Amino acid sequence: RKRSAKKLGPRLNALNKYAGGGVVSAKYTGTVDGDTYKATLRNSGKPYSSRTRLKDYDAAEKPTSNEKAIWKAAGVTSEHPGITATRLAENYGSGLSDKQFTEMFIGQGMGAYDRPHYKADALGKQLIGAGVGSPKGKDFSIYQWLVENEGKKKADEIRSLGQQSKLGYVRGGRDGYNRGGKVRAPNSLLTPG
Q1: What average pLDDT does this structure show over 170-181?
Q2: pLDDT tens string 11-44
Q3: Is 53 helix (H, G, I), strand (E, B) or coil?
């Protein structure tokens, strides 16, 4: 029995999909960002819609409208890495058959917020190769991307503008823009001309 299971290896997942209680079918329905798909999933019960999570990789998040305004105000002409990451993920996910899409989920378990994990090393490598993703154990940092692509001065300017936004912040901590609290705008931003 054990020998037979070892001999079948990953093919065993296809034969006994219900055993682990995980995803048994998945259909791509959209791309949220570079590491998150929307999908219609099915385990042993009824189909349900869910966001999913790329296992072992992190990608830049799509920019909020506030972030886009800050980048424009700072004169950044580079495409936001979250837009690049989303485009790569969309091209990858939309090009898969339902069977290929489903196979990414088999045996991968659930992540935070009960989002099913999927394994797609080819996508992860594309994200890293494009400079908009990072490997397991390292969160992608927008601030670090800005330092590397626009320079430290521009990255610090964007961080400062983010802290001065009407909400007082642009996405907490993880993107490296905000470390908490509102900051008074410098006089150069308060005086006309």
Answers
A1: 44
A2: 555 444 444 456 778 899 999 999 999 999 887 7
A3: strand
Q: Which residue has the tokens 């992190």?
A: 58
Integer Cα distance of 52 and 116 in angstroms: 5
- Indicate the helix (H) or strand (E) that contains 82: helix 81-94
Tokens representing residue 21 in the block: 């209680």
Residues 6+ apart with CB under 8 A from 63: 71, 80, 82, 83
Helix (H) or strand (E) holding 100: helix 98-103
- Distinct helix (H) and strand (E) counts, the chain: 9, 7
Helix, strand or coil, per DSSP, at residue 190: helix
Q: How far is CA 49 from CA 37, 96, 149, in A?
A: 10, 18, 37
Kindly provide the b/e burial profile for residues 116-148, where b requires at least 16 CB atoms within 10 angstroms of the residue's own CB: bbbbbeebbebbbebebbbeeeeebbbbebbbe
Find where tokens 């642009």 sit: 170
Maximum mean pLDDT: which of 154-163, 168-177, 182-191: 154-163
- H or E stretch including 49? strand 48-51
Range 47-59 burial, b when 16+ CB lie within 10 A, else e:
eeebbbbbbebbb
* The predicted structure's pLDDT at residue 177: 43
